[in-house]
Design goal:
The complex is a heterodimer of chains A (about 220) and B (about 240).
Chain A (H helix, E strand, L loop, with lengths): L13 E10 L2 E11 L4 E5 L6 H8 L7 E6 L2 E2 L5 H4 L2 E4 L11 H12 L5 H10 L15 H12 L7 E5 L7 H16 L3 E5 L10 E4 L4 E5 L2
Parallel strand pairs in A: 3-8, 3-9, 6-7, 7-8
Antiparallel strand pairs in A: 1-2, 1-4, 4-5, 9-10
Chain B lengths: L8 H6 L13 H14 L2 H21 L3 H24 L4 H5 L2 H7 L4 H30 L4 H28 L6 H28 L5 H30 L1
Classes of the chains: A alpha/beta (about 220), B mainly alpha (about 240).
């Protein structure tokens, strides 16, 4: 899947070809190729400063690459239809939850940005899976870092359809229980036809992920 | 704990937007509802500009002396300048919280039109900063000894002029987003652009105090409002996209 010649793949959810990115005059990466099909999970690895966050931002359409292009369902990332954009989820280092809002309000706002407003019962269900059932009406500001991260991850569970996830260190601040749940849930997401690209310094235990090393730009097959 | 589903205060508040659900729609109304809700829980956001407006106004009688004719003559300019400064006080941080907590990135990525989201953000900002000024302006006008007609024109001019200032401020805030000392930069960027609104706005009130018709100046102010409403939100959306990149 990696380093394959540039061609438009009709079945690919995300296809990146010959991506290059510079930051402050320094070349972070170049010639990066990636294809995400339904059901694929990719673990993007690389040391600090190797450009993982920059790459995710380029893939999400938040930043422009210096070379190459990113396509979703065959359409360039800057010309996606609202429906196509509604299927893209990006979780950065920040959780995008306002501290003055209640958890349910913050999650409803985020899911409203992506498309359909979500009923309270579904928010409740997603939160209980992360052990935050009692926090639905708590102010985000009163939650701990780990709880906020869990709430931000619970937001990804509100989707009806399997989306394409770009997650920047999603396991940050999670406890052991949260890490195990995240693993299970990644497997579940891939099983129902979603795609995910994530960066992490914490090894994924059970989820079947393909590893892409940004430092060498060489892929190793499915992890043993 | 899980069985307890408290009757959320939030649910009741969101009722006009989405009756059966706790979730306002995600478009411009969603952003507006969110911003008003945040402001309701963090009152300094809208009380501070209002307090600044009143405090700045009260300095003029102290500085110029309690001469009623002089105060009546300077009132149109003084009230307008204080309104402009007070609006700038709050508008320069309009997008910085959304940038810091990542909400802005989510708005840019989502399926909603960024121009619509910006419009919702601007509307909320105006309701929180311009709206209170318009409500307090009659008191300010009367305290400076303006006639009833002139107070009416003052309110009308602020009603037309403050949204212009909010929109220009939003554009400046978007351009200067993420810069060090951005607040001062926004001020310097927006001040020249806000001059026409200041000239027509205070001009209308001056005309009214002299017993002349103020319609022409108010019409020009209205035209300025329409022009700004057409240009500023798309420009702000584009500036935000660039600032985040």
């Amino acid at each position: 899947m990696i380093s394959e010649p540039a061609r438009t793949d009709a079945t690919a959810l995300l296809q990146a070809t010959r991506l290059a990115c510079r930051r402050g005059g320094r070349r972070l990466f170049s010639g990066f190729e990636l294809t995400l099909e339904p059901g694929s999970a990719v673990w993007l690895r690389g040391p600090n400063g190797s450009g993982k966050t920059s790459l995710l931002r380029v893939l999400a359409g938040l930043a422009r690459p210096d070379d190459g292009e990113v396509r979703y369902d065959g359409a360039p990332v800057h010309a996606l239809s609202p429906v196509q954009r509604g299927r893209l989820r990006y979780l950065g280092h920040t959780n995008a939850l306002k501290s003055e809002l209640r958890v349910v309000e913050a999650l409803a706002f985020l899911s409203g940005l992506a498309g359909e407003p979500v009923p309270r019962a579904r928010v409740q269900a997603a939160l209980s899976r992360w052990g935050l059932a009692g926090k639905i009406d708590a102010l985000v500001g009163s939650l701990s870092q780990g709880q906020r991260r869990k709430a931000a991850l619970a937001r990804l569970m509100l989707d009806d359809e399997a989306c394409t996830w770009l997650l920047d260190e999603p396991q940050e601040a999670l406890d052991a229980e949260g890490l195990a749940l995240f693993d299970d849930w990644l497997t579940e997401h891939a099983a129902r036809g979603g795609a995910v690209l994530l960066t992490s310094h914490i090894p994924l235990r059970s989820a079947p992920v393909r590893v892409v090393d940004l430092a060498s730009l060489t892929g190793t097959g499915p992890r043993p | 704990m899980t069985a307890r589903v408290p009757a959320s205060l939030a649910e009741g508040r969101a009722a006009p937007v989405a009756p059966a659900r706790a979730t306002p729609s995600g478009g411009h109304l969603g952003v507006m509802a969110r911003d008003l809700r945040v402001a309701g829980r963090q009152r300094t956001a809208w009380l501070l500009p209002l307090a600044f407006f009143v405090a700045a106004l009260s300095l003029f009688p102290l500085g110029l002396g309690a001469d009623p004719t002089l105060l009546r003559r300077v009132a149109p300019g003084v009230v307008w300048v204080c309104a402009l400064l007070s609006m700038m006080l709050s508008v320069n941080q309009m997008f910085s919280a959304d940038l810091a907590d990542g909400s802005l990135e989510q708005m840019l990525i989502g399926r909603r039109s960024m121009v619509g989201l910006v419009a919702g953000r601007i509307l909320a900002q105006w309701l929180l900063s311009g709206g209170p000024l318009v409500l307090v302006a009659p008191l300010a006008g009367l305290a400076f000894g303006l006639s009833g007609d002139a107070v009416g024109v003052l309110v009308a001019s602020l009603l037309l002029g403050t949204p212009v200032m909010t929109m220009l401020g939003a554009l400046g805030a978007a351009l200067a987003l993420g810069l060090r000392n951005g607040a001062a930069l926004v001020f310097l960027l927006v001040l020249p652009l806000a001059m026409p609104a200041l000239v027509f706005g205070s001009g209308a009130v001056v005309a009214a105090t002299n017993g002349e018709p103020a319609g022409a100046a108010l019409s020009l102010l209205g035209a300025l409002l329409i022009l700004t409403a057409l240009v500023a939100p798309p420009a702000t959306a584009a500036a935000l996209r660039i600032s985040v990149e």
